UniProtKB/TrEMBL annotation:
<dbReference type="GO" id="GO:0048513">
    <property type="term" value="P:animal organ development"/>
</dbReference>
<keyword id="KW-0067">ATP-binding</keyword>
<dbReference type="GO" id="GO:0060271">
    <property type="term" value="P:cilium assembly"/>
</dbReference>
<dbReference type="GO" id="GO:0005524">
    <property type="term" value="F:ATP binding"/>
</dbReference>
<dbReference type="InterPro" id="IPR027409">
    <property type="entry name" value="GroEL-like_apical_dom_sf"/>
</dbReference>
<keyword id="KW-0143">Chaperone</keyword>
<dbReference type="InterPro" id="IPR028790">
    <property type="entry name" value="MKKS"/>
</dbReference>
<keyword id="KW-0206">Cytoskeleton</keyword>
<dbReference type="Pfam" id="PF00118">
    <property type="entry name" value="Cpn60_TCP1"/>
</dbReference>
<dbReference type="GO" id="GO:0048731">
    <property type="term" value="P:system development"/>
</dbReference>
<dbReference type="InterPro" id="IPR027413">
    <property type="entry name" value="GROEL-like_equatorial_sf"/>
</dbReference>
<keyword id="KW-0539">Nucleus</keyword>
<dbReference type="GO" id="GO:0051082">
    <property type="term" value="F:unfolded protein binding"/>
</dbReference>
<protein>
    <recommendedName>
        <fullName>Molecular chaperone MKKS</fullName>
    </recommendedName>
</protein>
<dbReference type="GO" id="GO:1902636">
    <property type="term" value="C:kinociliary basal body"/>
</dbReference>
<dbReference type="GO" id="GO:0005634">
    <property type="term" value="C:nucleus"/>
</dbReference>
<dbReference type="GO" id="GO:0005829">
    <property type="term" value="C:cytosol"/>
</dbReference>
Length: 531
C-alpha cells in the first residue's frame, strides 16, 4: 500500500532581491557570463556529477543549455537570454551581462522600482532611436555589392569564440567560406519576398580546418563501393531522383484500435513485399536513377533496384529531408573540418550563428561598431542628452531631473561595465573624449607614459591613437561631452579589419536586457510549490 504524505504549503518569499542568497546567486551568474565575454574570454567546462557529456564553451547558448538553474529569479533571466539567442543567435552574453549590471546598479539607488522601470524605459527608447538614426556615430551600412563589411562581421563572430581554437589564417579561411555559403543561398531572381535557401553543415572530423570547403547542392554520404557499382558508366545530364519520407522497410503500420482483415492463405508480409517490388518496377520504368529514403528500405527492394542500376540510399534522416524536399531552391553544403569532436561542435555552432547573423543583415543592412566602442559611445551620448537636454526625456514632468540623472548614470555604468568585461587580464581601459570609443592598455604597461604610445587602435579598429585625443579612465567621473558622430567615409569604405556586431541582434539584446531587468526589479513575491 502506498504511503501518503501531507501536502507541503507553498513557499512565499517577499522582496526576493532583498535576499542575500539571491544577490549572491545573481553575482555568481554575472561572474560566469562576464568571464566568458569577448575574444579573450575564459572557457567553461560543464558536466553533471554523474558523468556523461562534457561541454567546453564560452557561448551563451551552450552555457545556459547545460547550466542548471533552479531559483525563479535566475530562471527568468536565463530564459530571457535563451529566447533572445533562439531568435537572433548572437549577443547572448551581452544581454546577460547588461541585465545583471542593470539590476546590480539600480539596487544601490534609493528610488522606487516604478520610477526605475519607467526611466529605464525612456532611456531604452533614447538608445534605440539613436542607434537607428542617420546621426548615429557607431553604425555602418552594409553594401552587399562589396564583401569587406560582411567579412568583418563574420570574422568578428569567429574571433569572439576562443573555444574554436582557430589561428588567424583559419579564421580568414572559414570566414570566406561562411560568406560564400551565405551568398549561395540567395536566389538569383529576387521578387518582392526573398526566400533564402539552406546551408547544410557537413562534419569532416580529424581533418585540417583549412581543408574545409563549400559545395553547391546537397552532399549525401554514399560508400565508394556503392558508387562504383551502381553509378551508370556513362550518364549524360542530371540524375532523376525519387525522395520518400516514409519507410520502405515493409513493416506493417500500427493500426491503432482498428483491425486488419486478411483473407485465408494470404501472407501479409509477402503482400507488402510484392507492393514494394511493384514500386521498384515503377521507379525503373520511370527511369529513376537515385532513390532517397528518410527511413529504411527493404533489402529485397534494394537488391531489385541494384540489379536495375538504380542507386538506393536509405536512412537519410530528418535533417536532410527539408532541403531535399525543395532541392530546386538555393542550397549548399559547407564541409566543415576540425581536429576533434569538441572543437568541431563549437565551430559548427559558431558557423550557424554567423550564417544566421548574415541573414539578419538582409532585413536591416547595418552593423554596429564592436570591441566595446558602441557601449562606451552610447554611454557618452546618454550622459550628454540627460545632462544637457533632459526636457526631451522628462516631457510629462512626472520625474525630477535628479532622478533622471541617477538612473542615467546607473544605465551608462551598466553599458560601460559590458565593455569593460572584454578585459580579462587586469589591463587599464580608457575612453577618448572625442568619439567616446573604447581603448585597452595591457596590465604590465608603465605607470607614467604617453597613452597613445601604448595602443594603436580603438576596440573596433576604426580610429588610431595618432589623433589628438584627451583621455579618461572608464567609469571615472568626467564632465559629459558630445561624442562626434561623423564616421570617416574613407575608413569605413576601405575597412577590412573592423570589429563589428549585428545591429538587429544587438538592438534586440539591449531591449531584452532592459525589459528583463525591469521585470526582475518589479518582483514583489516569489511563490514556489515545493511538493
Amino acid at each position: 500500500m502506498s504511503r501518503f504524505e501531507a501536502k507541503k504549503p507553498s513557499l512565499c518569499t517577499s522582496e526576493p532581491l532583498m535576499s542575500e542568497g539571491v544577490r549572491a546567486t545573481l553575482s555568481v551568474l554575472k561572474g560566469i557570463v562576464t568571464s566568458c565575454y569577448g575574444p579573450s574570454g575564459r572557457l567553461k567546462q560543464l558536466h553533471n556529477g554523474l558523468g556523461g557529456y562534457v561541454c567546453t564553451s564560452s557561448q551563451s547558448s551552450a552555457l545556459l543549455h547545460h547550466l542548471s538553474v533552479t531559483h525563479p529569479v535566475l530562471k527568468i533571466l536565463t530564459t530571457s537570454v535563451q529566447n533572445h539567442v533562439s531568435c537572433f543567435s548572437d549577443c547572448g552574453l551581452f544581454t546577460a551581462i547588461l541585465c545583471c549590471n542593470l539590476i546590480e546598479n539600480v539596487q544601490r539607488i534609493a528610488l522606487t522600482p516604478t520610477t526605475v522601470i519607467s526611466l529605464n524605459k525612456h532611456l531604452l527608447s533614447l538608445c534605440t532611436s539613436y542607434l537607428k538614426s542617420e546621426a548615429c556615430g557607431c553604425r555602418i551600412p552594409v553594401d552587399f555589392s562589396r564583401t569587406q563589411v560582411l567579412l568583418c562581421l563574420v570574422r568578428s563572430i569567429l574571433t569572439s569564440k576562443p573555444a574554436c581554437m582557430l589561428t588567424r589564417k583559419e579564421i580568414d579561411h572559414i570566414s570566406a567560406l561562411i560568406l560564400q555559403a551565405f551568398l549561395l543561398t540567395i536566389p538569383e531572381n529576387i521578387n518582392d519576398h526573398i526566400i533564402l535557401g539552406t546551408s547544410i553543415i557537413v562534419p569532416l572530423k580529424g581533418q585540417r580546418v583549412v581543408d574545409s570547403t563549400v559545395l553547391p547542392g546537397i552532399l549525401i554520404e554514399v560508400s565508394e563501393v556503392q558508387l562504383t557499382r551502381l553509378l551508370p558508366a556513362k550518364k549524360s545530364g542530371a540524375l532523376k531522383v525519387a525522395v520518400f519520407c516514409t519507410t520502405l522497410s515493409g513493416d506493417v503500420s500500427d493500426t491503432g484500435e482498428g483491425t486488419v482483415v486478411v483473407s485465408y492463405g494470404i501472407s501479409l508480409e509477402n503482400a507488402v513485399l510484392d507492393q514494394l517490388i511493384n514500386l521498384g518496377r515503377q521507379l525503373v520504368s520511370d527511369h529513376i536513377d537515385l532513390v532517397l529514403c528518410q527511413k529504411v528500405i527493404h533489402p529485397s527492394l534494394k537488391q531489385f533496384l541494384s540489379v536495375h542500376r538504380v542507386i538506393a540510399i536509405d536512412r537519410i534522416g530528418v535533417t536532410l529531408m527539408a532541403p531535399l524536399s525543395k532541392v530546386t531552391a538555393t542550397i549548399c553544403s559547407l564541409l566543415l573540418c576540425n581536429r576533434n569532436d569538441t572543437i568541431w561542435d563549437e565551430l559548427k555552432l559558431t558557423c550557424q550563428t554567423a550564417l544566421h547573423v548574415l541573414q539578419l543583415t538582409i532585413k536591416e543592412p547595418w552593423v554596429l561598431l564592436g570591441g566595446g566602442c558602441t557601449e562606451t559611445h552610447l554611454a557618452a551620448y546618454i550622459r550628454h542628452k540627460t545632462h544637457n537636454e533632459p526636457e526631451s526625456i522628462l516631457k510629462d514632468g512626472e520625474y525630477t531631473q535628479t532622478e533622471l540623472l541617477l538612473i542615467a548614470e546607473a544605465f551608462c555604468r551598466a553599458l560601460e561595465s559590458v565593455a569593460g568585461s572584454l578585459e580579462h587580464d587586469g589591463g587599464e581601459i580608457l575612453t577618448d573624449m572625442k568619439y567616446g570609443h573604447f581603448w585597452s592598455v595591457q596590465a604590465d604597461a608603465p605607470s607614467v607614459v604617453n597613452w597613445p604610445d601604448l595602443f594603436s587602435q580603438c576596440g573596433c579598429g576604426l580610429y588610431n591613437s595618432q589623433e589628438e585625443f584627451s583621455w579618461s579612465f572608464l567609469r571615472s567621473t568626467h564632465h559629459p561631452f558630445v561624442p562626434q558622430t561623423c564616421l570617416p567615409h574613407e575608413a569605413v569604405g576601405s575597412a577590412s579589419n573592423l570589429t563589428v556586431d549585428c545591429l538587429t541582434a544587438k538592438l534586440s539584446g539591449l531591449q531584452a536586457a532592459v525589459e528583463t531587468a525591469s521585470l526582475i526589479l518589479d518582483l514583489s513575491y516569489v511563490i514556489e510549490d515545493k511538493n
